[in-house]
C-alpha cells in the first residue's frame, strides 16, 4: 500500500518564466570570448551593479576585509575547515598510486595527478554561502591543486566580508568579487586580467549552472550539474514529527524549487509531521521561501514497511537522504541512490551543509543514480603509464598487437607491433 498524505501542488508554480536562460548565457559567453574584461565589466554593472577598479582583491584588501569579521565567525570558519580538511585528506590518502608487472618486464602503472588550475564559484545572492568556500577551495587544495581562482558576487553592492574570510582561510590563490555567468565565463575562457582555469566547481543559480553546462568539454571540466537543493527523509513509527518537520523545512528554505519529501511506514507520523510543518511555518523567519517550496514540492508518503520505504527512496535518488529510524545503518545496506546519507536523529542534513566535514556539493535531479558528489577525487586526474623493458615480451606484444589490429583493419597500428616483433624476435614482414 502506498498512501500519499501530501502531494506536490504544481498548480501553484506561478506563471511560466519567459526568460530564455540558455540564450542569455550563450550571449554573455560569446561577448566575453570576444571582448574579455570589457564584457565582464559590462555584465557585472548590468547584473550586479558592481564595477570596481579591479575585481581581484589585493592581499592588502583581503587582510583589511578579514579584519572586519568578528573573531567568533573566524574561529568557526577555522573549525569547520579543519573538519572538512580532515575528511578530505583521508579521502586523498585512500587513493593510491600503484605499479604492477603483469608479465616479466611489462610494467603498468597508475598515478593520481592534481588538476593544474581550478575555478571555485561561491554563490551569493539570497545568502552568503561561506560553506561553499570550504567545499570547493579547501577540497581542491587537499587534492594538491596548485592554483585556485575563487569568485563570489557582491551582495547588495557590498563585498561579503565573511565569505571573503572563508575563501582566504580555505587557501584561495586569487579572490575576485565577481558573480554570475560573467564570473564562470571569465574563469573558463580567461581574460586580460584573469588566467584561464581547467576546471570549475561550485553551486549557483540557473544561469551559473547553464554557463557551466555550455562551457563544459571544450573549455573546462566541471564538478557536476547542480539543481535546487533536495531532501528526503525516511522515518519509522518511532520518529519525532517535530524533528522530521524541522529538518524538512531546513532544506525547503533554500529556495522555492527545493523538494522536501517524507516517506514513512507510519500514517500517524506522516499526519503529525504535516501538522508540525504548518505550525512551524507560522514562526519560521524564512517561511516566505520555505512555505512556497513545501506547498509546491512537499510530499508525505506512507508505505507498509521500511523495506518499501528504502526502495521508494532509491527511486527518488535524492540529494540528501536522512534516516530517522531505530536502526538507521540499515540504509547503508538497503539503499544505493543518494548524494549523501544522514543517519539517525543525532545527525541532520544541516550538519552536512554547514559544518560536519563531508562535502555538500551533491548530485540533484536524479543524478545520484550515476554519480556521487564533489570530493578530492574530482580534482585529480587518474592517469596511467606503461613501460616494457623485456625484448622478448615486447616482441610477443608486437605479434599480438599485429593480429589484434589487423582484425580491426588498422594496418598502421599493426605495423607498430610488427616493428617490435621484427626487431626483438626476428619476424619477417613484406613491408619491412
UniProtKB/TrEMBL annotation:
Binds 1 zinc ion per subunit. One of its GO terms (biological process) is L-histidine biosynthetic process. PROSITE patterns: HISOL_DEHYDROGENASE (PS00611). Pathway: Amino-acid biosynthesis; L-histidine biosynthesis; L-histidine from 5-phospho-alpha-D-ribose 1-diphosphate: step 9/9. Catalyzes the sequential NAD-dependent oxidations of L-histidinol to L-histidinaldehyde and then to L-histidine. The lineage of its organism: Eukaryota, Fungi, Dikarya, Ascomycota, Pezizomycotina. This is Histidinol dehydrogenase. Its EC number is 1.1.1.23. NAD(+) binds at residues 121, 182, 205. One of its GO terms (cellular component) is cytosol.
Amino acid at each position: 500500500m502506498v498512501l500519499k498524505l501530501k502531494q506536490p501542488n504544481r498548480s501553484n508554480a506561478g506563471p511560466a518564466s519567459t526568460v530564455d536562460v540558455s540564450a542569455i548565457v550563450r550571449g554573455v559567453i560569446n561577448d566575453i570570448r570576444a571582448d574579455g574584461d570589457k564584457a565582464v565589466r559590462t555584465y557585472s554593472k548590468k547584473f550586479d551593479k558592481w564595477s570596481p577598479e579591479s575585481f581581484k582583491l589585493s592581499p592588502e584588501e583581503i587582510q583589511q576585509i578579514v579584519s572586519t569579521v568578528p573573531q567568533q565567525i573566524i574561529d568557526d570558519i577555522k573549525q569547520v575547515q579543519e573538519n572538512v580538511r580532515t575528511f578530505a585528506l583521508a579521502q586523498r590518502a585512500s587513493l593510491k598510486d600503484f605499479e604492477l608487472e603483469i608479465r616479466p618486464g611489462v610494467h603498468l602503472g597508475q598515478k593520481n595527478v592534481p588538476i593544474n588550475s581550478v575555478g571555485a564559484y561561491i554563490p551569493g545572492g539570497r545568502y552568503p554561502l561561506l560553506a561553499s568556500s570550504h567545499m570547493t577551495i579547501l577540497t581542491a587544495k587537499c587534492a594538491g591543486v596548485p592554483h585556485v581562482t575563487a569568485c563570489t558576487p557582491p551582495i547588495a553592492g557590498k563585498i561579503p566580508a565573511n565569505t571573503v574570510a572563508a575563501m582566504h582561510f580555505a587557501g584561495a590563490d586569487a579572490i575576485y568579487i565577481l558573480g554570475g555567468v560573467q564570473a564562470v565565463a571569465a574563469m573558463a575562457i580567461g581574460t586580460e586580467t584573469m588566467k584561464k582555469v581547467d576546471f570549475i566547481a561550485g553551486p549557483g543559480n540557473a544561469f551559473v549552472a547553464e554557463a557551466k553546462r555550455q562551457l563544459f568539454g571544450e573549455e573546462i571540466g566541471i564538478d557536476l550539474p547542480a539543481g535546487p537543493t533536495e531532501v528526503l527523509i525516511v522515518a519509522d513509527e518511532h520518529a519525532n514529527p517535530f524533528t522530521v518537520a524541522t529538518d524538512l523545512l531546513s532544506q525547503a528554505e533554500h529556495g522555492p524549487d527545493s523538494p522536501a519529501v517524507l516517506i514513512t511506514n507510519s500514517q500517524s507520523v506522516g499526519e503529525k509531521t504535516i501538522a508540525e510543518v504548518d505550525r512551524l511555518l507560522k514562526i519560521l523567519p524564512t517561511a516566505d521561501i520555505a512555505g512556497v517550496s513545501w506547498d509546491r514540492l512537499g510530499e508525505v508518503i506512507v508505505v507498509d514497511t521500511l523495506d518499501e520505504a528504502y526502495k521508494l527512496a532509491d527511486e527518488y535518488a535524492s540529494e540528501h537522504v536522512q534516516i530517522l529510524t531505530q536502526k538507521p545503518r540499515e540504509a547503508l545496506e538497503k539503499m544505493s541512490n543518494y548524494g549523501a546519507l544522514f543517519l539517525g536523529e543525532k545527525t541532520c542534513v544541516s550538519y552536512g551543509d554547514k559544518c560536519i566535514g563531508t562535502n555538500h556539493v551533491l548530485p540533484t535531479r536524479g543524478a545520484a543514480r550515476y554519480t556521487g558528489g564533489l570530493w578530492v577525487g574530482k580534482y585529480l586526474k587518474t592517469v596511467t603509464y606503461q613501460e616494457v623493458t623485456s625484448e622478448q615480451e615486447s616482441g610477443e606484444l608486437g605479434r599480438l598487437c599485429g593480429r589484434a589490429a589487423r582484425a580491426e583493419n588498422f594496418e598502421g597500428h599493426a605495423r607498430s607491433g610488427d616493428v617490435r616483433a621484427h626487431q626483438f624476435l626476428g619476424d619477417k614482414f613484406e613491408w619491412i
